[in-house]
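Q: Given only this backbone (541 positions), what sequence would you predict?
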């Protein structure tokens, strides 16, 4: 009969001779024990410390153990090469009598001690990569590491093992394709939860430093980068292509997507970004759902869509980096708050419910068109451009005095609360159904197609051209106004009437733009002004 021996005796004899199988043990189990193999734990084969002496007795296998965790792995010595894992090779290298060279740390049983990873799945995957010479496919990689914790641990330790570049690249793709931290259902971070509550939870989390994850930063083609529920900094990417980038419910800082990155689409929602450089060459960029960006750069090459977003001192550098001929770059801002002076390198800009809080709005594209719709406008920033800006206001309310300077202007259903000033403005379409407050000023303004049903009583016009057509001032009420050096059209018998009573005219002319263009002095009883009510008006030079 087999006798059981004390554990101390077993430990002393484990390195010299195999023990007989305990009572009830199978022959195969005894055979495995004799080879120094431990039983499988959760389906993962473990290695016995018996072969740890292989560095001394010349056997083919070496045993490694993770410090403080007990994860054990057996690797054939010939699998340890400078190309696959030079770190493990250096640990087990024979130093001979040279005490000056550092040697790998061993435990009491002679096993080589590693500092990580602590996650079982990550450890077994990295060891399997060494065994296979780095030949592990993407599908197998996902099976070896089924959860986010194991993938993070593998990324943190891939540089420690110095595995080949393709393995590091595959690990990066696997992690970034679904880099999402779970949130508790009752923590106020569900779909209907407020973004403020979500970000409060993210701020309470420890910041994840992507620069210490051992991620590959360049020369990759990725299907998706999906970041969700992260409080992270230091993520960098360059010289790569991504089909789809999604950043959702994240708090990111000091990240850099270089100008050398391309993407089919970039989406950011319910997130806070601070000093993030979005230099991605993407044909469609969308920011929405109460996101906030501070000191960020956004590159736009075709379309930018922004809804319910706050931008603080953001730039759009790189948008002109690779501008193609006849390429139209457009941006749409809905219900946004834009703080700081901003430079917009776009051809078409649509703003609805959007407010610019800076002093200067610089348009870098000549002839750029910007439109505001359904907006209460308190003030307009100074619009600077190499050419005249085309500004369109539709269904807007101007609550304060606003000055319009050097632009092409379109006004549709606009309500003015206070007198405004128009300087070197061209109204490209007929101005219809508007009321300009008293004391409004028009200087060097051209009404290209005239006015219709416009009230502008008590206003001042200087150097203005009020149109050429017969209906240039049809059904208008321009009483008690002052006109200096202005141009009016000749009127024919079928011209509509207009009321210009009580006005003063100084150095004004009437003009004809037909085949024989010419001008005449503005005279109250002129035959060419017979369709206008000029009662109480005066004319002077």
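A: Predicted residues:
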């Amino acid at each position: 009969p087999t006798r059981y021996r004390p554990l101390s005796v077993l430990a002393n004899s484990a390195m010299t001779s195999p023990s007989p199988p305990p009572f009830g043990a199978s022959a195969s189990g005894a055979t495995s024990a004799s080879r120094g193999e431990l039983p499988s734990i959760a389906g993962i084969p473990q290695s016995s410390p018996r072969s740890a002496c292989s560095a001394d007795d010349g056997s083919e296998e070496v045993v490694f153990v993770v410090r403080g965790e007990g994860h054990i792995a057996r690797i054939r010595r010939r699998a340890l090469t400078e190309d696959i894992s030079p770190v493990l090779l250096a640990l087990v290298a024979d130093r001979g009598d040279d005490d000056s060279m550092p040697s790998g740390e061993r435990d009491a049983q002679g096993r080589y001690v590693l500092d990580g990873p602590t996650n079982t799945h990550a450890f077994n995957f990295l060891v399997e990569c060494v065994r296979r010479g780095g030949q592990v496919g993407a599908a197998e990689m996902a099976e070896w590491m089924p959860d986010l914790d194991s993938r993070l641990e593998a990324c943190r330790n891939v540089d420690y093992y110095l595995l080949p570049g393709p393995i590091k690249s595959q690990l990066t793709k696997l992690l970034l394709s679904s880099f999402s931290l779970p949130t508790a259902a009752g923590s106020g971070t569900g779909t209907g939860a407020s973004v403020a509550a979500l970000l409060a939870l993210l701020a309470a989390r420890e910041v994840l430093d992507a620069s210490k994850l051992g991620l590959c930063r360049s020369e990759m083609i990725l299907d998706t980068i999906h970041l969700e529920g992260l409080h992270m900094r230091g993520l960098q990417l360059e010289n790569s292509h991504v089909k789809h980038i999604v950043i959702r419910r994240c708090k990111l800082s000091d990240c850099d997507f270089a100008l050398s990155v391309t993407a089919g689409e970039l989406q950011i929602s319910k997130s806070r970004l601070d000093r993030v450089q979005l230099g991605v060459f993407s044909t469609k960029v969308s920011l929405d759902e109460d996101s906030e960006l501070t000191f960020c750069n956004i590159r736009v090459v075709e379309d930018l869509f922004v809804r319910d977003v706050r931008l603080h001192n953001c730039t759009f550098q790189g948008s002109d980096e690779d501008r193609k001929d006849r390429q139209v770059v457009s941006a749409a801002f809905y219900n946004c708050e834009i703080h700081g002076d901003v430079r917009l390198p776009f051809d078409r800009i649509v703003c609805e419910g959007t407010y610019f809080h800076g002093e200067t709005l610089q348009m870098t594209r000549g002839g750029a068109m910007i439109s505001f719709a359904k907006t209460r406008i308190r003030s307009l920033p100074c619009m600077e451009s190499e050419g005249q800006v085309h500004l369109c206001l539709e269904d807007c309310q101007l609550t304060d005095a606003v000055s319009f300077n050097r632009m092409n202007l379109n006004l549709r259903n606009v309500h003015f609360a206070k007198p405004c000033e128009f300087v070197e403005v061209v109204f490209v379409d007929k101005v219809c159904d508007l009321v300009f407050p008293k004391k409004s000023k028009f200087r060097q303004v051209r009404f290209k197609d005239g006015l219709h049903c416009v009230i502008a009583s008590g206003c001042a016009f200087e150097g203005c051209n009020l149109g050429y057509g017969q209906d240039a001032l049809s059904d208008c009420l321009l009483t008690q106004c002052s006109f200096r050096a202005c141009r009016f059209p000749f009127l024919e018998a079928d011209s509509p009437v207009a009321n210009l009573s009580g006005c003063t005219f100084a150095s004004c002319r009437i003009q004809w733009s037909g085949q024989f263009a010419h001008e005449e002095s503005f005279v109250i009883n002129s035959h060419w002004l017979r369709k206008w009510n000029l009662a109480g008006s005066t004319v002077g030079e």
